[in-house]
Amino acid sequence: MFNTSYIEISKKAFKNNIRYLKKIIGNDIRFSSVIKGNAYGHGVENIVPLAEEAGIDHFSVFSAKEAYDALPVMSPKSRIMIMGMLDDEEIEWAIENDIAFFVFDMGRLEKAVETARMLQKKACIHIEVETGFNRTGFDYKEMPALIDYLKKEKEHYLFEGLCTHYAGAESLSNYLRIKNQITLFKRFHRYFSRHGLNPQLRHTACSAAALTYPNTIMDMVRFGIAQYGFWPSPETHMFRFQKDSSDANPLRRLLSWKSKVMVVKEVEAGNFIGYGSSYLANKRMKIAIIPVGYANGFSRALSNTGRVLIRGRRVPVIGTVTMNTLTVNVTDIPGVERGDEVVMIGKQKRLSISIASFCEMSEQLNYQLLTRLPAGIPRFIVT
Ligand SMILES: *Cc1c(COP(=O)(O)O)cnc(C)c1O
Question: Between β-strands 351-353 and 313-316, what pairing exists: parallel, antiparallel or unpaired?
């Protein structure tokens, strides 16, 4: 009721993925579940409880806002870590609520220490170092000043983590750049150690790094895309395929996206279908209108190229995708009627439409497609 499409999240698939990823990193390594971007479109309120059921007690988000949204659905025993945006006022909230956060410049560090002093409560910090991604992180040349400051303010923070992020571990073409980042990270770590500053957790790996560079695993891994059942890239999949020496894909996608047929109708030959003249019916055709458009996450780039499943058959999108509808050609499928299930992503009978194919057709990255699925689409957990 009150929705034109819905998303199903498979609990079984999620458990399978966590089991596989834990096997790769080993039991002693902390597993941080990355739930930024509304858990990659899956819904934090769905993923957090499933992850906790699977034994995960650490979650990574991008901003204070995302931490704020995750807090109410999280067990008090679980930890949240903010990897990106946090403004000065939010630092106070984070420290009060035992939320850990990345620190990548002196400004934020000083603010954290100042706030911790005022609250008389330690800030849990993860110092991010710049190893070559060139987004956030302390530069090597800032180390002397940073170390001095950290030594001086020791009682106001807990040095929970030392971390960095790789610049494209999913692509073999970045191999050298990643190797250099690993080397530089180790240098940073030795520098801190020499001065008696020892982080509880060294963490650098995202999914692609953990799956393809075992020496990036360290004390904790920040798993995003892989826990949702997607390979960061086809290369990552190939690498594991050889290493695991198994034919089966060890990752299972959690998400299916479904709707139903709104109207079925006939169009006489010689008429254009939809806005403008991008699709001409060159014979008598039967079409079905689906109440899902670009406002609902179905990219307009899929006009005249996308595919959906109806009655166990793959049918093409014809004409332009509009704000709230798309049209498909069902001329050759007998019996299609209003209310028939439509699968945009997922399985129907023996066929399936993957996000990968969807991404290829619309030139999107799986990360982008997932996070653009509107938060308003209802999501249900299925077993
Ligand atoms: C998003 C993100 C991750 C997770 O990346 P995946 O490729 O989805 O595994 C890890 N670390 C940081 C800093 C991130 O921003």
Answer: unpaired
Residues 140 and 110 placed together within one structural domain of the fold: yes
To the nearest 10 degrees (0 to 180), the angle between helices 143-152 and 175-194 is: 40
Residue 1 lies in a domain: no
* Residues 210, 150 within the same domain: yes
Tell me the C-alpha distance between 169 and 166, whole Å: 6
Task: Tell me which residues have their CB closer than 6 angstroms to ligand 1.
Answer: 34, 36, 83, 165, 206-208, 222-226, 232
**131 shares its domain with 275:** no
Q: Looking at ligand 1, which atom is closest to the CA of residue 83?
A: 13
Kindly state whether residue 326 falls inside one of the protein's structural domains. Answer: yes
Distance (Å, whole) CA 179 – CA 175 = 6
CATH number, domain at 180?
3.20.20.10
Tell me phi and psi for residue 119, to 5 degrees.
-80, -15
C-beta separation of 59 from 33 below 8 A: yes
Residue ranges making up the domain that contains 278: 255-353
Full-prediction pTM beyond 0.90?
yes
Total number of domains constituting the chain: 2
CATH number (domain holding residue 294)? 2.40.37.10
Please give the structure tokens belonging to residue 286.
Answer: 């039967």
Per-residue pLDDT of the chain (383 residues; tens, 9 = 90+): 689 999 999 999 999 999 999 999 999 999 999 999 999 999 999 999 999 999 999 999 999 999 999 999 999 999 999 999 999 999 999 999 999 999 999 999 999 999 999 999 999 999 999 999 999 999 999 999 999 999 999 999 999 999 999 999 999 899 999 999 999 999 999 999 999 999 999 999 999 999 999 999 999 999 999 999 999 988 999 999 999 988 789 999 999 999 999 999 999 999 999 999 999 999 999 999 999 999 999 999 999 999 999 999 999 999 999 999 999 999 999 999 999 999 999 999 999 988 777 777 766 678 888 998 999 999 999 99
Cα of 83 vs centre of ligand 1, distance in Å, is: 9
**Mutational pocket test of ligand 1: of 18, 32, 83, the residue with most ligand atoms within 8 Å of the beta carbon:** 83
Residue ending a domain, choose from 178, 212, 244: 244
